[in-house]
Every structure is written in C-alpha cells, then in structure tokens.
C-alpha cells in the first residue's frame, strides 16, 4: 500500500491555463485529455467559457480577472506544479494577470501556445494583446509553439509557401525573447510529410512525420502543446519531449476517424492507445529528426 501511494503521489502535475471548449475537442478539455493520456496529472485555470462544437464557436464568455487570479492561487498554493501549458488568453488584462502570477510562483517549465489566429483566418487577439504576449510571457516561456499563421503574426513575415520564405520566418523567430520555439508546420502543405521545427538559438531541428489526410483535426495545436508540457514535466529534455509529443499527436490524428464525433471537423483521438482495436503499428509514424543551423 505504501509503494502504491508513493507512486501515485509522484505523478508530475501539469497546469493548463486556457479557454473551455464545450465540444470537448480543443482548449482545456483537449489539454486535460492529452496530459492524462501521456502520463501526467492535469489541473486547470479557465480563462473563458465557449459555446462551441465541431461546426464552430457560437459564444464566448470571458472569466473575470479576479477569478482567473483566484484559480491560479488555488492551484499553486496546494500543488507542486511541474509544468504549465498556456493556451487562449483572449486579451491584455488576462495576459498581464497570468504573467504576474507566473512571475510570483516561478514554475520551472512553461509551454506557451500563442493562440492568435482562428482556423478561419480571423484574428483572435488585438495588436496590443499580441505585443503584451511577446513582452510579458515570451521571456518566461521554456518554449512557444506557434503554427505558421501565428508565426506570421508574431514576426510580420508572410505565411511561408516556399522554402526561402520558411527560412525567413525561422530567422525572424530566432529573434523573439523566448528560450525556444517549436514552429508547427501543418500548414506547409507543399511537402508530403508534416514537419515541425524546434528552434533553439542558431540550432534548428526538423521533426518529420507522415502527413495524415483527415478532416478530424480539431484541437491538434492544443493537444501537441499539452503533450509537450506533460513530457517535459516527466523530465525529458526538449528534443526528447518534442519527439514524444509529435508521435502522440500523429497517432491521435491517425485514429481520429474512429470516433465519429459531431457533424463538422471532429476532434483527434486522445485516448487511441486505450481504444484502438485495429492493430496499427505505432512505430509507423515515429518522427524522423534532422538537425541543422542557420
């Protein structure tokens, strides 16, 4: 009994700070699923409540600054948080209170997913909030995880469609005030594979996996960054954690069509390892890494 209790108490705790998705495919719900499926304990601070499903977002109710602060105080005063994952923050006030609390409690690992652009292409943050995100939270982050449209907003570069534009945006990301950047390349569709690039100073490592054709990709960005936070909380280094997180999201996308959830763009299958019955070889999508510098 003592050994069992010891094992339970040693599970790494990951805090996700993000909005709630009532459809369960993205946001806090996706984060909790991904963190749990990858072996960590998930707790949360909710920044907004959305009414949404696989067809779209119907309404957003922001949480008050006071209650966001209260949630963070409640978590940090009781739990030993090994890592923090940050998702949708919505406005400058929320960015400032989250940054204030993180500076106060000083968690060792912060994975920041800068949710700024909707799938439709609409901006989710005003220009001032984007600047506040860069000034207040980027310096605290262990790694930020923008997709290509978000990276374009952060750098002022065009969304890359060719290799030379990709090199330009990577160079611009290297100037941001963060320890590392994981550039998610799902939108770079000129390749048969899906690439992500881990940028640590002049060192750029490419993680490559087979591109999976499915319409059920709701919550992929949330899921990848939450899995990354989970693996970092477990003691993996950044390259190891990215490799594991990319493998996890690839498998979750590969199995997404098994869920049959909703009438629109469905979620990925966070718990594919528990529910899979088709015997797919998980090693098939193990990412290949290539390292270079520029």
Quick tags:
10 strands, six-stranded mixed beta sheet, 10 helices, alpha/beta, globular, four-stranded antiparallel beta sheet
Percent range for β-strand residues: 15-25%
Average the pLDDT over all residues and give the rounded result.
Answer: 87
Number of helices: 10
Taken from the alpha-carbon principal axes, the silhouette is globular
DSSP E strands, number:
10
Low-confidence segments, ≥5 residues, pLDDT <50? 278-286
Q: Helix share of residues?
A: 25-40%
Structural class: alpha/beta
Q: What is Rg?
A: 18 Å
What pattern of helices and strands is seen along the backbone?
Answer: HEHEEHEHEHEHHEEEHHHE
Largest sheet: 6 strands, mixed
The span between the termini is: 54 Å
> Can you list the strand order of the major beta sheet?
3-2-1-4-5-6
Oligomer status:
single chain
């Amino acid at each position: 009994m003592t050994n069992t209790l010891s094992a339970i108490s040693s599970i790494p705790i990951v805090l996700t700070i993000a909005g709630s998705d009532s459809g369960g495919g993205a946001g806090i719900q996706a984060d909790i699923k991904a963190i749990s499926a990858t072996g960590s304990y998930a707790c949360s601070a909710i920044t907004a409540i959305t009414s949404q499903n696989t067809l779209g977002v119907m309404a957003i109710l922001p949480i008050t600054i006071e209650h966001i602060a209260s949630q963070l105080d409640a978590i940090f005063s009781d739990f030993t948080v090994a890592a923090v994952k940050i998702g949708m923050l919505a406005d400058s006030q929320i960015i400032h209170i989250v940054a204030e609390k993180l500076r106060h409690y000083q968690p060792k690992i912060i994975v920041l997913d800068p949710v700024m652009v909707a799938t439709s292409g609409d901006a989710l943050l005003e220009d001032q909030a984007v600047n506040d995100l860069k000034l207040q939270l980027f310096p605290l982050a262990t790694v930020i995880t923008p997709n290509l449209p978000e990276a374009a907003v952060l750098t002022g570069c065009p969304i890359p469609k060719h290799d030379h534009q990709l090199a330009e945006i990577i160079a611009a990301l290297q100037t941001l005030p963060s320890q590392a950047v994981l550039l998610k390349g799902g939108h770079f569709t000129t390749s048969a594979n899906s690439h992500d690039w881990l940028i640590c100073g002049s060192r750029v490592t490419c993680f490559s996996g087979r591109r999976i054709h499915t319409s059920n990709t709701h919550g992929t960005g949330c899921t990848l960054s939450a899995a990354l936070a989970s693996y970092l909380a477990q003691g993996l280094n950044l390259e190891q954690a990215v490799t594991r997180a990319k493998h996890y999201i690839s498998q979750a996308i590969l199995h997404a069509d098994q869920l049959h959830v909703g009438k629109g763009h469905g979620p990925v299958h966070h718990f594919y390892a528990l529910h899979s019955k088709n015997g797919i070889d998980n090693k098939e999508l193990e990412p290949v890494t290539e390292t270079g510098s520029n």
